[in-house]
Write a sequence for this structure.
């Protein structure tokens, strides 16, 4: 998949949003990046997971990324852009989080998890429905 201008802008926005969410409420990688890459970049589940892990490779997932890379499920240029914007967003999100009360941060965290959960459940249901009710 090429890193054209529209893809680059999408990656910058996704990385920044995920970084802000990470700094604000402590989530980002799997909860924000994977669904966003699937929705906005058209990546499959495995490619989105592999690319997300590649972005976090240095500190977290080198062994997991090696498996996804061997399977051809890592977009390295995407991971690099996401890494830079994620760091910037995490810095900004943490500053915002520390200015909010714990109750507001809990509310934001719960809302992010609820949205991601509903989106994943709806997508899975639409894919499984034809096999359950032929």
């Amino acid at each position: 998949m090429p890193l054209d201008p529209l893809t680059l802008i999408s990656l910058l926005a996704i990385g920044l949003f995920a970084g802000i969410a990470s700094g604000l409420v402590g989530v980002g990688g799997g909860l924000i990046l994977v669904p966003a890459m699937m929705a906005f970049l058209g990546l499959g589940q495995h490619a989105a997971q592999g690319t997300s892990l590649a972005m976090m490779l240095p500190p977290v997932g080198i062994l997991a990324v090696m498996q996804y890379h061997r399977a051809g499920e890592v977009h390295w240029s995407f991971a690099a852009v996401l890494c830079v914007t994620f760091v910037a967003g995490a810095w900004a999100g943490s500053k915002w989080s520390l200015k909010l009360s714990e109750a507001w941060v809990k509310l934001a965290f719960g809302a992010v998890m609820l949205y991601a959960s509903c989106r994943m459940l709806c997508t899975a249901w639409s894919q499984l429905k034809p096999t359950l009710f032929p």
